[in-house]
Amino acid sequence: MRKKSKRTLRPVAKPLTAKQKADIVIAPRMHLQMLLAGQYDVDYACSLAGVFNLSGVLSHMYERNDLEQTFDLAQEIIVCLIREGRAPTGDEGQSLAEAFNLADAWITMQNTVSLMKAVDYMDRELAKKDRLGDVNAVGRSAR
Of 17, 40, 48, 86, which one has the greatest count of Cβ atoms within 10 A? Predict the structure, then answer.
């Protein structure tokens, strides 16, 4: 009888399919165009925030501080737009468009394994924040 191998299978690195690319960057690009045209919708802003989150995590994974700063600035603009419920100004729109072009290029050059790692990291961080939020909410309501 053969001994069972303890090796685990690792996912195979593959380039993005056309559908994956459409889901990750093409729909958010349309949302960016809608925002730049002055049609504010919180879903459009959240869609862009997701792209900038993913590209920020990827740039952090590969220690690309220059890109990470660009995506952080774009995230700050998106947060401001969501808080104020408005479309971006001309300068903000230009910054968002430039950051999105970098994010698009950065995300689409990654393989699926890198993207899976980045998404897993994002999920873990969001779960941590949710748990902290629940603890803080309980603490506030108890006061």
Answer: 48
